[in-house]
Design brief:
Elements lengths: L1 H18 L21 E9 L2 E9 L10 E8 L4 E8 L5 E7 L3 E9 L8 E9 L5 E5 L3 E3 L5 E8 L2 E2 L3 E6 L2 E7 L5 E5 L7 E9 L8 E10 L3 E11 L2 E12 L2 E2 L4 E8 L5 E6 L5 E7 L6 E10 L2 E2 L2 E10 L5 H19 L1 H38 L2 E2 L3 E4 L6 H4 L1 E8 L4 E2 L4 E5 L5 E3 L1 E4 L2 E5 L6 E6 L6 E5 L5 E7 L2 H17 L9 H9 L12 H5 L10 H18 L6 H20 L10
Parallel strand pairs: 9-16, 9-24, 26-35, 28-36
Antiparallel strand pairs: 1-2, 2-5, 3-4, 3-6, 6-7, 8-10, 10-11, 10-14, 12-13, 12-15, 15-16, 17-18, 18-19, 18-22, 20-21, 20-23, 23-25, 27-36, 28-29, 28-33, 30-31, 30-34, 32-33, 34-35
Helix pairs in contact: 2-3, 5-8, 5-9, 8-9
Length: 606
């Protein structure tokens, strides 16, 4: 039944078709053909880098996606529309293309054409550019040292008038050509020099050949290769810049000796605490050092290790050392215990001996009180000097002048004396201010001596100034004759006394003051002048200390003051009095912090 119905339907369809003019037969292929036409758009940029013409472009569809592997024809014309150059390039997988060439200086029009395809229309874009004869600059970055047979990347950047230059760079080793590199349209590329680097020093020269409109560019670099590199180190207890601690020294050597300019990272740890990283760099002899401070009471087990990272190749590791810091006995407690033992022994021997011992103790205690009294007087005088900015001094009598005439009897000779070097001060100025406010200069006699006529004068104020010395003032209460000496303080000595005064007020002891000059000189003789602390530009930072944050001030100002003490006391140079005033401002600020924030100077860690 179903078959009969299908046959009947086919018959009816044929009759309808015949009634409309008969059946029309179409080719089978035409029935399934589909034609799709997209869009293509060219974006073009032409840039001049000296006489180097750089062309960059992009071929995209209507959705902004790059059209890959499409041919683009480039045409370069001058101002007269004459063809100068032409090229054929292909887009990459992102639809980008680039091309460059060296041309004669002048103005050009670059035209890029896409011929189209079966499904893409043709497209064209133009850009103008002007080329000017400019020198080319070449920057080359190569590792100064390579460990073993690692890669040696040489990075190139060529530019002219701020634009990248696409050209060739020839590589020579010991005068022989070994390689060449093609720079991209941005003037950059990277080349591995490892096949051309041998053990020892390798002198490379990188050359951009000259043209009729620019000179050749040559850059020389040296690459040192070491196959057997050894790292050794040691830890030594030292006294550095008024701080006690340990100096960790490191030495890096290869077949030719010390290796310079290698980055060093130390990891310093104390048992139970997080490690601290300290960065450094090897010097010309392959050595590097760092300082591990040991503040009072910081006992425990310390450990240090180092990692040396060459510019190219595997890093080197020094396993380091461990040491233990034990708490030293307190000297004050020992002295007190010894005193008690002596007293008990004397009491045991007899009352007479005890009485004599009591006399001795009283005398000792009197000396202690006297020293404290003198210390307080010195402290008060120093506080006044800090507040005033100058010294108030007393005269020392040298000898009496012979009383031969009235003129001599009314003449007073004042010597300006360097109390640090124990000699007369040359080039000083002595001014006399009367009670009525008049000021006059004293008459110079030579060798630091000055003559004053003080007949009938009372209440004179003498002001002495000299390059490198703190201003000194003294009062002459009555007219007199003779020869007096005014001892002035050089800037380095006054700065050191300021430091001692401040530390004694804050801590009760002064590390510098507890050492003899010979011990200080011996300690400093063992220090390396090229340590990282020496690199501190302390003098420039003296000018900017007011910009420090409040929480950073105590530690930073104490470091600046410490640097000023050592640099001025042991440099052998003279310093302007302006430095004294800068240091005085820092001391006043630290003294304020000590008074308002107890323990402020203990905040500095190792």
């Amino acid at each position: 039944m179903r078959t009969v119905l299908k046959a009947l339907a086919s018959l009816i369809f044929c009759l309808i078709a015949l009634g409309e003019g008969g059946l029309n037969f179409l080719p089978a292929a035409a029935a399934y053909e589909v034609r799709v036409l997209g869009s293509a758009e060219l974006e073009l940029e032409a840039v001049g880098a000296g006489t180097n013409l750089n062309v960059r472009g992009l071929l995209v569809d209507d959705l902004g996606r790059g059209l890959a592997q499409r041919r683009v024809d480039l045409l370069v014309e001058n101002e007269q529309r004459a063809t100068i150059n032409q090229a054929r390039v292909y887009t990459d997988f992102q639809g980008r293309f680039s091309w460059s060439s060296d041309e004669v200086p002048g103005s050009y029009v670059v035209t890029a054409s896409f011929a189209g395809s079966e499904h893409l229309p043709a497209s064209q874009a133009s850009a103008s550019v002007r080329l000017v004869a400019e020198p080319v600059a070449l920057e080359v970055q190569v590792p100064s040292f390579v460990h073993g047979e690692a890669e040696v990347p040489a990075r190139f950047q060529a530019s002219s008038a701020g634009q990248g230059v696409s050209t060739f760079v020839s590589v020579y080793r010991a005068g022989e050509p070994v390689a060449a590199a093609q720079l991209d349209t941005y003037g950059r590329t990277t080349l591995d020099l490892q096949p051309f680097v041998e053990q020892g020093d390798n002198a490379f020269e990188f050359v951009i050949e000259g043209t009729a409109y620019r000179e050749a560019v040559r850059v020389s670099q040296n690459v040192r290769r070491g196959d057997r590199v050894e790292v050794s180190g040691q830890v030594e207890r030292v006294f550095l810049r008024m701080r006690r601690g340990w100096e960790v020294r490191l030495q890096v050597e290869d077949e030719r000796g010390g290796v310079p300019d290698l980055d060093v990272i130390w990891r310093v740890s104390r048992e139970g605490e997080e490690p601290v990283k300290v960065e450094g760099r090897t010097d010309a002899g392959g050595g590097a050092s760092t300082f591990v401070e040991s503040p009072p009471g910081a006992q425990g087990v310390y450990a240090v290790e180092a990692r040396v990272e060459p510019p190219a190749g595997v890093a080197l590791v020094w396993s380091g050392e461990r040491w233990e810091v034990k708490e030293a006995p307190q000297e004050k407690a020992l002295r007190m215990a010894a005193m008690v033992a002596v007293v008990l022994a004397l009491l045991w021997v007899g009352r007479g001996v005890a009485r004599r011992a009591l006399v001795v103790v009283r005398a000792w205690w009197g000396r202690v009180l006297a020293r404290r009294s003198r210390a307080r007087a010195t402290e008060d005088a120093m506080a006044r000097d800090v507040a005033r900015g100058h010294e108030e001094l007393e005269f020392e009598e040298v000898r009496e002048a012979p009383d031969e005439s009235a003129e001599v009897a009314s003449t007073l000779v004042v010597e300006l004396w360097d109390r640090w070097r124990d000699r007369a001060i040359a080039g000083a100025t002595l001014r006399v201010e009367g009670a009525d406010g008049t000021i006059e200069d004293a008459r110079e006699l030579g060798e630091g001596a000055y003559a004053l006529s003080v007949s009938g004068a009372v209440g004179l104020t003498l002001r002495a100034t000299a390059p490198g010395f703190v201003e000194a003032r003294a009062t002459l209460e009555r007219a007199r004759s003779g020869r007096l000496r005014l001892k002035m303080s050089p800037v380095p000595l006054k700065i050191r006394e300021l430091y001692r005064w401040l530390v004694q007020r804050a801590h009760g002891e002064d590390l510098w003051g507890s050492l003899t000059p010979a011990q200080i000189a011996q300690a400093l003789a063992h220090q390396d002048a090229s340590t990282t602390d020496t690199a501190l530009d302390w003098y420039a930072r003296l000018e900017r200390w007011t910009q420090l944050r409040a929480e950073d001030r105590p530690a930073e100002l104490l470091r600046l003051l410490t640097a000023a003490v050592e640099e001025t006391n042991f440099s052998g140079h003279d310093y302007d009095v302006a430095l004294w005033h800068r240091v005085r401002e820092i001391v006043m600020e630290l003294d304020r912090l000590v008074a308002t924030e107890p323990g402020a100077l203990q905040k500095e860690g190792p």
